[in-house]
Amino acid sequence: MENRIQRIKEALQEAQYKLTPQREVTVKVLLENERDHLSAEDVFLKVKDKYPEIGLATVYRTLELLSELKILDKINFGDGVSRYDLRKEGAKHFHHHLVCMECGAVEEIEEDLLEDVEKIVEKEYNFKVMDHRLTFHGICGDCQSKKD
């Protein structure tokens, strides 16, 4: 975890920002809960446990800054709640998600499934793809099993 925090600190410094204690505790919470797709409120509650004097606005500003710097991605799974997801180190693109419409479970797909689609878009539409997001909405295996 310390290595990732150091690389995030370096990314902030390159953009003329500092890794303040408030930002650092927010980053640690995101790293500790990396697979959970936390909302800003979720992040705030977890940060507040570790750093009681922090305010909600500070957490929101930190999340927005980290989003602007492409350290994390702001995502919405169709439930009206923005969630935050750390970008995988070295990943060319944002990873994909499978969202269960029954139980709300979210599974990540690490492999890039859209390389061929990107090439077609770039060639046929003369459009330089910088990033993409793909979310499948459906029924997970556990929920399917419960129905059978």
TrEMBL record:
InterPro entries: FUR, Fur_C, WH-like_DNA-bd_sf, WH_DNA-bd_sf. Binds 1 Mn(2+) or Fe(2+) ion per subunit. Binds 1 zinc ion per subunit. Its cofactor is Mn(2+); Fe(2+); Zn(2+). One of its GO terms (molecular function) is transcription cis-regulatory region binding. Keywords: DNA-binding, Iron, Metal-binding, Repressor, Transcription, Transcription regulation, Zinc. SUPFAM superfamilies: Winged helix' DNA-binding domain. GO terms for biological process: negative regulation of DNA-templated transcription; regulation of secondary metabolite biosynthetic process. Zn(2+) binds at C100, C103, C140, C143. Fe cation binds at E115, H132. Pfam families: FUR. Belongs to the Fur family. This is Transcriptional repressor. The lineage of its organism: Bacteria, Bacillati, Bacillota, Bacilli, Bacillales.
